[in-house]
Design a protein that fits this description.
- By secondary structure, the chain is α/β, with parallel strands linked by helices.
- The protein contains eight helices and seven strands; from the N terminus they run αααβαβαβαβαβαββ.
- Strands 3-2-1-4-5-7-6 form a seven-stranded mixed beta sheet, sandwiched between helices.
- Helix 2 runs antiparallel to helix 5 and helix 3 runs parallel beside helix 4.
- The longest helix is centred in the N-terminal third of the chain and has 15 residues.
- The protein starts with 9 loop residues before the first helix and ends with a strand.
- It binds S-adenosylmethionine.
Length: 223
């Protein structure tokens, strides 16, 4: 998620809490993962609980059994993805930081889904070359300047019908700033251009507000 300085709108946070209380319920594995992340000094840039559950639901809607994630952090989103693929499914998740990967490994094992998750450590532009597809769903949530490279890798690792999702594509509206010097904005604007130019993709992007502020997901399906 985003790491900008402005605080989230209190009403957006309150609605996220309302959604979580009513629809998500208490979840000791996910809550434990966030606590372990904080204790280990990881940044608080995971997807929010409602967003994590949305990823879970999308995996199940797509009946996805093989999922690829780019950007593990402490494995919060990975737990939701791994639960969704079920005991016979698998998740490959790519992470550059060995400390993040070690925290994620513990969190995934404690959540009881460790056996269905492979964590590949290294720069994703390099490790993607060693990953075998096709995947049913691919979730991209790492360094934003590499988004176009990740999209091209995702296409290579796809089949017709694969869902591709990319997080943080609105960035509090900064995505509109064609003159931005922020390489995350530049990388995300380049992603929009690349998706628009790709005839194999049907795509949209959805704006979101909540505890992670104003942002959004790009979602595409490979035709
Ligand atoms: C936004 S966090 C991922 C959050 C996670 N998907 C979740 O919602 O729980 C981005 C992660 O990508 C990792 N990352 C950054 N650059 C990377 C790269 N070049 N290759 C692989 N991972 C990278 C960061 O270390 C960080 O852990």
């Amino acid at each position: 998620m985003v790491e900008r300085l402005s605080p989230p709108d209190p009403a957006w946070e309150a609605v996220d809490r309302y959604i979580a209380e009513h629809l998500l319920g208490r979840d000791t594995a996910l809550e434990g993962a966030l606590a372990a992340n904080a204790a280990a000094g990881l940044p608080d840039i995971d997807v929010s609980p409602p967003q994590g559950r949305m990823l879970h639901l999308l995996v199940r809607m797509a009946n996805a059994r093989r999922v690829l994630e780019v950007g593990t952090l402490g494995g919060y989103s990975t737990i939701e993805l791994a639960r969704a693929v079920g005991p016979t499914g698998s998740v490959v998740t790519l992470e550059i930081d060995p400390h993040h990967a070690a925290v994620a490994r513990d969190n995934l094992d404690r959540a009881g889904v460790g056996e269905r998750v492979e964590i590949v450590i290294g720069p994703a532009v390099e490790t993607l070359a060693s990953v075998s597809g096709p995947f049913d769903l691919i979730f991209i949530d790492a360094d934003k300047p590499s988004n176009v490279a990740y999209l091209h890798a995702a296409l290579r690792l796809s089949r017709p019908g694969t869902t591709i999702m990319v997080d943080n594509v609105v960035r509090e509206g900064e995505i509109l700033d064609a003159a931005s010097a922020d390489d995350r904005v530049i990388g995300t604007r380049a992603l929009f251009e690349a998706v628009a130019a790709e005839p194999r993709l049907t795509a949209t992007a959805i704006q979101t507000v909540g505890s992670k502020k104003w942002d959004g997901f790009l979602i595409a399906i490979v035709d």
